[in-house]
Specification:
The chain is an alpha+beta fold and 160 residues long. 29% of the residues lie in helices and 28% in strands. The protein contains three helices and six strands. A six-stranded antiparallel β-sheet has the order 1-2-3-4-6-5, with helices on one face. A hairpin with a 2-residue loop joins strand 3 and strand 4. Helix 1 packs antiparallel against helix 2 and helix 2 packs antiparallel against helix 3. The radius of gyration is 14 Å and the shape is globular. This is ATP-binding protein. GO terms for molecular function: ATP binding. InterPro entries: Anti-sigma-factor_SerPK, HATPase_C_sf, HATPase_dom. Keywords: ATP-binding, Kinase, Nucleotide-binding, Serine/threonine-protein kinase, Transferase.
Length: 160
């Protein structure tokens, strides 16, 4: 099933740049839906297969975190947009949830139950990831947070 993105204008998208946004379903199916949507979007932009595979793993981790830690705090959204990176434009992906006051979950080597996915995101994104307070992009604006990562090897692929 292909999902068509809601195209957004420059004045409504994160970082003031145009991009795409999709609603994510609640529940445990959110990660699988995010992987499929992102795969289709990046393939339509001509992203290399290895970039798509890494992006799918990273978005799966973020969507899972949103479900586990902010499941009741919807809406949940998936964003793909152009951001400002170290070397100019880069393509970024973010998962938004409305649990605005939460921080990124930490990882304890002794408990081993939290944070490993963010380590994967950190490694695969080359350290280009983070959290930002934001408003939802679809429907009425809702205050929340977006956890984002950059897609190395996919700079400037989004339409201007």
């Amino acid at each position: 099933m292909k999902t068509t993105p809601a195209e957004l204008t420059a004045d409504t998208m994160t970082d003031g740049m145009p991009g795409w946004a999709w609603a994510l379903p609640g529940g445990p199916g959110s990660a699988g839906h995010a992987r499929r949507v992102l795969r289709d979007a990046l393939a339509s932009l001509g992203a290399p297969p290895d970039v798509i595979a890494d992006a799918q793993l990273m978005v799966s981790e973020l969507a899972t975190n949103a479900h586990q830690h902010a499941g009741e705090h919807g809406p949940h959204e998936l964003w793909l947009y152009r951001g400002e990176g170290r070397a100019g434009d880069e393509v970024r992906c973010a998962v938004f949830d409305a649990f605005a006051d939460a921080a990124l979950p930490g990882y304890s080597w002794t408990s081993g139950d939290c944070g490993r996915g963010l380590g994967i995101v950190r490694e695969l994104s080359g350290g280009r990831w983070g959290l930002r307070r934001a408003l939802s992009r679809l429907g009425p604006p809702v205050r929340g947070k977006a956890v984002w990562f950059a897609l190395p090897g996919c700079t400037g692929a989004l339409p201007s």
